[in-house]
Specification:
The complex is a heterodimer of chains A (110) and B (122). Chain A is mainly β. Chain A is 0% helix and 45% strand. Chain A is built from no helices and nine strands. In chain A, the strands form two sheets. In chain A, strands 1, 3, 4, 7, 8 and 9 form a six-stranded mixed sheet that branches. Chain A has a three-stranded antiparallel sheet with strand order 2-6-5, with no helix packed on it. The model of chain A has no long low-confidence stretch (mean pLDDT 96). With 122 residues, chain B is mostly beta strands. Chain B is built from no helices and ten strands. In chain B, the strands form two sheets. In chain B, strands 2-10-9-4-5-6 form a six-stranded mixed sheet, with no helix packed on it. Chain B is globular, with a radius of gyration of 13 Å. The chains are: A mainly beta (110), B mainly beta (122).
Amino acid sequence: QSVLTQPPSASGTPGQRVTISCSGSSSNIGSNYVYWYQQLAGMAPKLLIHSDNERPSGVPDRFSGSKSGTSGSLAISGLRSEDESDYYCAAWDDSLSVLLFGGGTKLTVL
Amino acid sequence: QVQLVQSGAEVKKPGASVKVSCKASGYTFTNYAITWVRQAPGQGLEWMGWISAYNGDTKYAQNVQDRFTLTTDKSTSTAYMELRSLRSDDMAIYYCTRDSVYGSKSGSRDSWGQGTRVTVSS
């Protein structure tokens, strides 16, 4: 069981806005940046969001990140079929001295 | 462009060792670190450890630190991961990823290798 908690699944229809949550604690999300990764089937993870809410160049602005207290969120607006993927949050944990990943959320585009 | 190219799939017996390479290109190798992440079949991502390509400093996850060694070769811009005394629960895809030279706490892991599948089977 991951220390960062994500819903195992999420879904939406094309054009909709979906959000994926990532719940942690004061030793990880509460005191360090949240990162989000997209992992398409059979592929390596890809950085989507860094430093809570920053998009690397090349990532569409349909993807956005936010953080409040000990929880982070990934929002995807204008949902597209190619967004169907697994999404992972990550944050450094100061108590455990490890990079923690959430358990992952499988997004289905209906 | 930044590229991390990993060595090919490995099949090992329980108790054996495996060494996976990760060759970097498209950036100054010693300005960054390499972090290793693994993913067991059908499971999520697990951080295993970090090595600075600048000075060789390392940090390992507690659950593998006795069996796990990270090294780098600056002359070839290549990072290596060695895991010893392999067990069935080490069976996974192992990824290298570019990280901050100041540690995984500071980095974003913006580029990833393609992954190396390690199978452990008698």
